[in-house]
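Subject: design request, 181 residues
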């Protein structure tokens, strides 16, 4: 099964993102905006994981989440990867340590990770089949500044690929309470 660890933004934050995207829809031809139900912040991509690894991965991910406090974050600005992926950036805690812990949980559980790129927190909001100049969208979304929200849990998510991609949360683990109040 194809798995990844992620933070799922709350519905009211996704409403803001959806409104921002609606305002730029059609600006660049050929951009597909993924279904809102698939929006997430990937912390660690595990790829295809054997079923036997799942219990250990869940246990290790639960321990990793419990070691990190709740994070205050907000979506802001936009960018593009390789002229094919449109994304919104993240301000606040960069989630780097949490992502490193989620990656380590996967390695220790035996989930072979296929993504060795440095962690860069972002929300993918658009894709193209072919390289496309996404600058008009990046510029139109550059001033986007969403509300601040609490990233308070880590989900282990299974991808169901096919004509329509679907994600299924296999487990959710709370981050530690923020002791700063």
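Subject: RE: design request

Done. Sequence follows.
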């Amino acid at each position: 099964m194809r798995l990844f660890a992620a933070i799922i933004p709350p519905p009211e934050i996704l409403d803001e993102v959806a409104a921002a995207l609606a305002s730029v829809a059609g600006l660049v031809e050929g951009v597909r905006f993924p279904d809102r139900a698939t929006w997430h912040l990937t912390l660690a991509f595990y790829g295809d994981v054997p079923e036997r690894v799942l219990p250990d991965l869940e246990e290790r991910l639960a321990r990793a989440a419990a070691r990190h406090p709740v994070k205050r974050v907000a979506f802001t600005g936009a960018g593009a990867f390789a002229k094919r992926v449109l994304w919104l950036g993240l301000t606040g805690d960069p989630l780097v340590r949490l992502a490193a812990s989620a990656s380590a949980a996967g390695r220790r559980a035996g989930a072979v990770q296929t993504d060795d790129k440095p962690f860069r927190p972002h929300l993918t909001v658009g894709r193209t089949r072919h390289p496309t100049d996404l600058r008009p969208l990046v510029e139109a979304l550059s001033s986007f500044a969403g509300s601040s929200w609490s990233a308070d849990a880590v989900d282990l998510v299974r991808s169901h690929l096919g004509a329509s991609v679907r994600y299924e949360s296999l487990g959710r683990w709370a981050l530690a309470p923020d002791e700063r109040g």
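The radius of gyration is 16 Å.
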